Amino acid sequence: MRPKIILVFVLAMILSEDVQAHDAVVNGIFYNLDKATKAAQVTYSSNSSEKYSGDIVIPEKIECGGENYVVKSIGMQAFHLCHSLTSITLPSSIESIGSYAFSYTDGLTFMSVAADNPVYDSRDNCNAIIETAPAGGGMLCNGYPRKCYSHRV
Questions:
Q1: CB atoms closer than 10 angstroms to residue 33
Q2: What digits encode the pLDDT tens for the residues 16-48?
């Protein structure tokens, strides 16, 4: 009988453990870290009560555990369902944005990208993030960039 009690206790501990979808949290922003390349990716928390809200400014670099990382990407669904997110500002270091990164961000009213970002822009205060230099040569389709992340204002 004792092994069953121990097994139930161990299973309860495993199931109650908060599975993290991130390696680090710096100033309220969740990141996955690539220690080999010193690159950071903005991601989300697996805890549904820890959604992004308000005005978010993604830094170009972060420090974690005494190491410096360059913030190079926004992960898939990083801001998904963040209804209270009101603005997002991306640095020049962002090179990729994952699928559905800004889906269902109903409260988002301002999007901006650093003017010197070589891949994305938010020209003329258009309140959108426009991919201007996709991998493979910056091709346009019918005169429009390949990807545009926008929202209704």
A1: 20
A2: 334 446 789 999 999 999 999 999 999 998 787
CA angle 112, 31, 114 (to 5 degrees): 20
Number of helical (H) and strand (E) elements in the chain, helices listed first:
1, 12
* Residue 10 falls inside a structural domain: no
pLDDT digits (tens, 9 = 90+) for 86-122: 999 999 999 998 888 888 888 888 888 998 999 888 8
Closest listed residue to residue 91, CA positions, set 104, 73, 110, 67: 73
- Counted domains in the chain: 1
The boundaries of the domain holding residue 44 are 19-150
Q: Could you give the CA distance from residue 81 to residue 49 in angstroms, rounded to a whole number?
A: 11
> Containing H/E element for 103?
none
